[in-house]
């Protein structure tokens, strides 16, 4: 497990919500691994792309210290993938740090791990988060146990600061 962080990404991910935490975690000495529906290159919403290191089916969640779920359209496109749900549940069962921003909580909703939690997200999915049994808070970052959520790109410095704090604990 050590210092490996897993990113789950789908087509039309929000470019900056993948690359900002990816590079920020690399600066802290973490090895970042990107998983997607396949190993084929995925387009971001704003012109960047990423070539996943692994397909979802290849991921053993026990090999990673933490999980990051970028937003954009990607979460909507991967949320019902059985491997994605298995991976996410593995992190919550072991209470390892999970970071989700913007539409990233859609993946948490489909995995059934938000009930009873406090979280934030892009305001457009507020009702979905509440309907999943979470308390939605309109603030830049919410930390609830192993979960760190944020709303939008300007929240990312606070989001990553809290996430890195959890990883170091």
Automatic annotation (TrEMBL):
It comes from the Archaea. Coiled coil: none annotated. It holds the Pfam family DJ-1_PfpI. CDD domains: GATase1_PfpI_like (cd03134). NCBIfam families: PfpI. Belongs to the peptidase C56 family. This is Deglycase PfpI. It comes from Pyrodictium abyssi.
